[in-house]
């Protein structure tokens, strides 16, 4: 019983499993916080500036697709990790074709992971900019609470449609200030901060995936050399036994 449990434990790719948990956790938090943050932004822009952001719904659907795609990739890499770990590797990659297929699958997954790492780095840069802008909004809301003046967003004119008037970029009414600051900016700021931290977690998991896939590729390649040496040794033993019989 103890040997069986030990054999099963030796077949588990712990490093890949840790990376998968990190990836799923990070992607889950990212999708939830970005979906919620986008919804809060849509409501705030509609109530305060009376603008309809129709394209946000498409962006929210992209978040769902990203979550499903990253989860599928994580389970694929985890499956490859199981095949390349412990005694399972010696059974699965015994034939030449299976070893070539294993190396190709690891190489393809490494290329996809490297590309996704670049994409998530761009997402991180975008979220840093968004979080910085919302932090500025938060500071403006804090100053307005003490001065009882309007929130002037004319310096952010590039975020509004081209035909927007300058007076429409100022928030002066109390209910508009509440909808902008309390209901919109403060809650969305927390969501975007969590999304930024979760993006860092996803990037860390992708780097971890790259290390695991590189190790799995090396294990499969070394197993191929080991298999060739074992075949040569078996051939030499057969030749030695044949020559011994001929002598006697």
What do the pLDDT scores average to? 78
Helix amount, in percent? over 70%
Radius of gyration: 28 Å
Q: Choose one word for the global shape.
A: elongated
Describe the model.
Helices cover 83% and strands 2% of the residues. With 248 residues, the protein is mainly alpha-helical. It is elongated. Helix 2 (14-48) runs antiparallel to helix 3, helix 2 runs antiparallel to helix 6 and helix 5 (96-147) runs antiparallel to helix 6 (174-247).
Topology at a glance:
Elements: H1 2-10, H2 14-48, H3 55-83, H4 87-92, H5 96-147, E1 151-152, E2 170-171, H6 174-247
Antiparallel strand pairs: 1-2
Helix pairs in contact: 2-3, 2-6, 5-6
Summary, kept brief:
The protein has 248 residues and is an all-alpha fold. It has helices spanning 2-10, 14-48, 55-83, 87-92, 96-147, 174-247; strands spanning 151-152, 170-171. It is elongated and about 95 Å long.
Task: Provide keyphrases for this structure.
6 helices, 2 strands, single chain, elongated, mainly alpha
